[in-house]
Amino acid sequence: MEPRIxxxxxxxxxxxxxxxxxxxxxxxxxxxxxxxxTAAQEESNEATFNRFYPMFEDVHVMVYVxxxxxxxxxxxxxxxxxxxTLLQSAIVLQWAVIMRGIWRVHGAKIPLDMESLLGAEFSAxxxxxxxxxxLGKTSLIQNAMIGIMETAIGAGNEYLGVVVLQAVDPGGxxxxxxxxxxxxxxxxxxxxxxxxxGNRNEGSSYISDVFSMIGTLFLWLYWPSFNAAxxxxxxxxxxxxxxxxALTASCLTAFAASSCLDGRGRLDMVHIQNSTLAGGVAIGSxxxxxxxxxxxxxxxxxxxxxxxLGYKFISPFLARRWSVHDTCGVHNLHGMPGVxxxxxxIILAATTSHQSHGDSLFSVYPARASVLFxxxxxxxxxxxxxxxxxxxxxxxxxxxxxxxxxSIAISGGVATGLLIRLExxxxxxVQDAFDDGVAWNVAGPEMPTFVEVKPRVSSPPRRPQIRFKxxxxxxxxxxxxxxx
Amino acid sequence: MEPRIxxxxxxxxxxxxxxxxxxxxxxxxxxxxxxxxTAAQEESNEATFNRFYPMFEDVHVMVYVxxxxxxxxxxxxxxxxxxxTLLQSAIVLQWAVIMRGIWRVHGAKIPLDMESLLGAEFSAxxxxxxxxxxLGKTSLIQNAMIGIMETAIGAGNEYLGVVVLQAVDPGGxxxxxxxxxxxxxxxxxxxxxxxxxGNRNEGSSYISDVFSMIGTLFLWLYWPSFNAAxxxxxxxxxxxxxxxxALTASCLTAFAASSCLDGRGRLDMVHIQNSTLAGGVAIGSxxxxxxxxxxxxxxxxxxxxxxxLGYKFISPFLARRWSVHDTCGVHNLHGMPGVxxxxxxIILAATTSHQSHGDSLFSVYPARASVLFxxxxxxxxxxxxxxxxxxxxxxxxxxxxxxxxxSIAISGGVATGLLIRLExxxxxxVQDAFDDGVAWNVAGPEMPTFVEVKPRVSSPPRRPQIRFKxxxxxxxxxxxxxxx
Amino acid sequence: MEPRIxxxxxxxxxxxxxxxxxxxxxxxxxxxxxxxxTAAQEESNEATFNRFYPMFEDVHVMVYVxxxxxxxxxxxxxxxxxxxTLLQSAIVLQWAVIMRGIWRVHGAKIPLDMESLLGAEFSAxxxxxxxxxxLGKTSLIQNAMIGIMETAIGAGNEYLGVVVLQAVDPGGxxxxxxxxxxxxxxxxxxxxxxxxxGNRNEGSSYISDVFSMIGTLFLWLYWPSFNAAxxxxxxxxxxxxxxxxALTASCLTAFAASSCLDGRGRLDMVHIQNSTLAGGVAIGSxxxxxxxxxxxxxxxxxxxxxxxLGYKFISPFLARRWSVHDTCGVHNLHGMPGVxxxxxxIILAATTSHQSHGDSLFSVYPARASVLFxxxxxxxxxxxxxxxxxxxxxxxxxxxxxxxxxSIAISGGVATGLLIRLExxxxxxVQDAFDDGVAWNVAGPEMPTFVEVKPRVSSPPRRPQIRFKxxxxxxxxxxxxxxx
Lengths: 484, 484, 484
Hints:
The structure is a homotrimer of 484-residue chains.
Chain A: H1 3-25, E1 26-28, H2 39-70, H3 78-101, E2 110-112, H4 114-134, H5 140-164, H6 173-190, E3 203-204, H7 206-228, H8 233-260, H9 269-274, H10 278-282, H11 293-321, H12 330-351, H13 354-357, H14 361-364, E4 373-376, E5 382-385, H15 391-420, E6 454-455, H16 467-476
Helix pairs in contact in A: 1-3, 2-3, 2-4, 2-7, 3-4, 3-5, 4-5, 4-6, 5-6, 5-15, 6-12, 6-15, 7-8, 8-11, 11-12, 12-15
């Protein structure tokens, strides 16, 4: 099939299937259906709407302007960064309504309301984190397939964690950030080609870095809404303030660490664009629960430091030794801080007591209540709570949720990576990597106004040793359909 | 008069007249007047404020950042795109308070509240759509005159449609988008010069295209607020969700169509910047009414496809054969999708029944109610409803409103175009078109860091045939004051 | 100490001290503490949250995207503009919670809620205004010290004005804008080096100017929230509308004045980026009080004009004759319009009567009430009102507040300037001014894709006469610790 037909066909097919699924399975939540609108319903409609809409819009801006512009740092890949964010998120948003909705069907159809849309944004965030690890190395059709797979698997994992294990993660640091990061890294591992490392196109320019900071700022500014959107009342209030403090703290420590790691004490734009945000990830699982604001500063400070260290030492190591090339460094911004969030949530669950939290203990950890009750939680699932868990039990379930997320993300990512290596998903040739000219009608020669500053992942002077990869690859070879 | 004095004088005169008009005709709405504030009024003040302010701010961002940056795609016209958006909208916003207010005067003066400001934003959107068709071809003073004329005529047309004809168009796709597009195209036709087509300055650069995407994203993100701002309760809730779905669908089909129309399956930035938004326009008239979300996906999918086809085939044709040069392609983003919205609203009006919508039928189509009642609608007009219309009658009035809008927009645009051709409005020489250097103090030689990518409207290899123009021009010649 | 260690050590020390202070002195406001959450508290939590959060987020965007991008106009200083805004504001935000909190301690600890965070943003704005005067001339460590000093002094000044003098300044034009501008100018004066004037790096490029307009627009768009965030009900409603009108008016007069001052009637990007915002500053002290909207247009028109005149005539004069080099021209955007706001507030206080404002007089000027009552005002202070002041007395106290602000800002700025001249704060060499290459790891040679347009402050053809500076400098010499 000609390329022009192929992309159009693939996207048309996806939209067609989505249309049919919406027609067959989805309808507005009952209070919004014109036929059922009454004065009493209107009040509840307005309350639900006002509870979610402003924060939904903030998260919406984070997804598109935040992630989209953050990824424009590559000097020859700005169109793709913003364009793919727009396209792929549009796919994920529709698909997520269905994939998340099937877990909360009450009657015949999936109910659609602002909560569904907020959940869909969460799925888009998860995908975009993975996309960050793969930026510049996958085709439009591959990305679409990744979005479809990841959204389905991620929604299942979230259901497992929130409903089955009743782990608590209001800001989604475990179910969204950790999941997205390790899923993306697994795909990157399976689709790795050694010439991705040290590629001459993989660098920023002065101007592309200033564009990228637009993304950083909008993520930084609206992150409190992200971590607070699923909770309410005092929990929402605390989630906003703790997130705000964690971000300011990670901002300071990221600058400090960045300066400290440069021979002449200069700052590195890569760290500032990313690691200043690590506090928002690390505080996500506990922001609404923490009773003392200084704890948020501790978590944020740690996250900023770890993230910069990751960019300096771990990313090059992963790229060289483990064949995991991570274009945006999502392991440093979402992976490690996400795991830190998970660990914090375990510690907090183990130490939170009725003495410290009063009756609101049962609101923040519903499974610790002794009475059975039903709520629709902020992630849109219908949960039966009240398991009379002890603090230690709750902590254990937080741990299981973290481990389950890591396992499902990595195995799901490996499976997805193997799938998209099929020729029909149009893998990108390594010489076309990180270059808009392949997928976009750009008059090539004029483009390099974007002047090179430096490669994002410092390329090693010598050829990478890929022994580990060789070993794993030989195992994978049998399952492989098409050699890279 | 010297140019320096002339622009300053014109703007000073406009602001002076506005000041006098505000002094004489405008005051705060009664509940906000300090003298009349009581505890009961305060509650109503807060309710009105909270109902409008968040969505007003979203629309405000759409107007300035959305439209302003969307138009920075021209590589030598970024200052003017953003600067003129700022200036001209500031004129329109003040003037619209008065021009829209005269239709809703209760007592001695025009009442001013958040609803007035939201209405003013709508007028600014209408102007900016027209401005998109004329970008790079008109002077600051011409633009001011267009804004003044269009705001007055557009407010009259909206009054006719909403109050007299009682057509329903909550997102303004008929009264704002269709009106603005055809008004602007009519002005473009009357002020056409053949060297506008294929002008060497009329192209984007890699960087200017990345700037332009800032505008696209903020329009895309806040469009649900735009379509939902004038309604409330379940209608607002549905308007947001349907707009969201239509935008995601038009996003997919725009990418698909763009890829399909390129010989090598590559994407065109022009389509991505614009056609991904077409779903928001096309769903505007019906977003709050639709009872099933999949209908929004159908409308959005159609809009994205039509819009890309328009950029590829219709815009070059209009420019060459019809002397309608449309710099931003507003015909493809606002014109045709606006007409599609109008047609959708006719079909929906004809098929909506008490059976499908229950009593909320009278809320979405007040003229279908049998009882007379008074409401202040979201556009700020005072309407008496209850005409006992049938579904067919309502559909017919939707059609009349669409046709009236098209006629008034085109005739108003022609009249305005003839007016601004007068020498006193300082028409722009064709060799100065699409160039910031004329109106801005830019050190010329250094500017072309912006490297050419491609002209926006593909220039024809041979001279355009302008037979139609010649014919119409000979008719217009008598009314003409100053030959181009 | 090595530079790499020094910056990291300084930032680590700051964060460490902040952490200890938060641990010892700060806790969540009682209704938010988990242990004290009850159903009744939840309602009050949600009300407080909803009252502040949306406007807080708007102000948050103004601080980071608004100020951050506004300052990217320098063609070689974009990293520093955005990066320093992010870092320094993160320091100020945490520190301000404590410095502002100590004036409102009720029990043992400083209570933390959304109001604290809004107040912290105000301190960040104050700092960023000063930072604008110093942009490109101070090091990261100097900036941190300025932020720490200014936040402490500014919070004290605000307490003096709002609580002791009971002056009324809802939008903070006196306590934030005027204070920040003159504080920054005083620091600039004390740290002046004559080669800052006419420096070859101090110019914009075409692209950096388009970046800068992102900042302008977000400031312009969210300014109504800034001026309205501390008030409520009808006052909030009026504050938004008056700010909106003042901004549109200052936009027109800034364009008019800019065009008028150019020999060929062309616009100057510097004026458009800044002076269009002057109306928001000038209306800040009275926006919520004004009873007639046309007054807002008058104030805005004046402000836009004064601001452009300042850029054209006063800034070059200050730089040459008074040794006050003001990189962003904050004197024109915040200084003079802030004083205009102060004068407006005096006039308004003198002319507002029970006849014009009814009982709401005591809400807008609580000190004029005859009964003693307690409120927590929007700035987060606990104020006892009811001093039975006459209109003239209130006007006099507005004047004292303005004069006190000017004196404290200038003397605080001089003291801070003398402090940061100490070698340990790492002053920037004059040849490194306005250059990202010093503090950032930028591959130097490639950077100048940013092409020079023009120096911001027009450099004089001849060497500046610095007689006044010489005179003052000889006075300061004795207090000086380290010659520049």
